[in-house]
Amino acid sequence: MRSRGGRLGDRLLHVYTWLVILWLSSPIAVMIMFGFNDTPSKSNTSWHGFTLKWYQQLFEISDLTTALRNSIYIALISTVITVVIGTMLGLALGRHRFRGQGATNFLVFAAISTPELVMGASLLSLFVSANLPRDAITITIAHVLFSLSFVTVTVRARVVTLDPSMEEAARDLGATTWGTFRQVTLPAILPGVLAGAMLAFALSIDDYVVTSFVNGSTLTFPLWIVGSVKTGIPPQVNVMGTLIFGLGVLIAIGNAVAARRRT
């Protein structure tokens, strides 16, 4: 039988947990709320009433729409590239033993722990030394580089849990190397690949620090928001943020449901 002190400690822990959750969720709740704010001006800092007009006028600010489009395109392209390279690298690190593997593992984790300021400055030096014009291409390259380690680690964690006998059985039954990968290995590591893809997309679409070093004249959604702080952030920014957040929640729920069905 538990003591009264133990039950009180559990209750305090539950209260503390919910307070932390509410604290972390409050900025998102404010963003969603001010997307419905009937503000008469561009400054969206005080509540004036409920309206849906900003959802109807979502794409009326052309520069903001272009910045959002740039962010989505860059995030999609960098995610595809990162997932392909990261999956192959995760398979190599999790399945094979080769000379230089320790150094490769070190570099992968070093890229994760490197401050964004250092990575942004180093990439800027690289592009300037190579005389590359800074635009959407350099942003995409930068996003691939800082997202690659996260995908690699996620896929590698899935690979090390696989049973090699499944692939050996497929080859014994006549499957080719590509057929074994497509029908056995890929379905087994798919949850890790999808998780890595979601992580890479999220890291890309909301990155500000690294992007600000290598963007040139190309504006992304976070850069546009920071640049508009002095003149006032329009309600459309909150609406776009709400839609991006809602899409992320739906993808996460769908992934969780699919994982439960597989088990």
TrEMBL record:
Keyword Cytoplasm: no
Membrane spanning residue stretches: 12-36, 72-94, 106-130, 136-155, 184-205, 239-258
UniProt keyword annotation of Aminoacyl-tRNA synthetase present: no
Pfam families with a match to the protein in the record: BPD_transp_1
PROSITE patterns (alphabetical): ABC_TM1
CDD domains: TM_PBP2
Domain named ABC transmembrane type-1: residues: 68-255
InterPro entries in the cross-refs: Bact_Polyamine_Transport, MetI-like, MetI-like_sf
GO terms, biological process: transmembrane transport
Membrane topology qualifier: Multi-pass membrane protein
Keywords: Cell membrane, Membrane, Transmembrane, Transmembrane helix, Transport
GO CC term (a single one): plasma membrane
Localization of this protein: Cell membrane
Family: Belongs to the binding-protein-dependent transport system permease family. CysTW subfamily.
Name of this chain's protein: ABC transporter permease
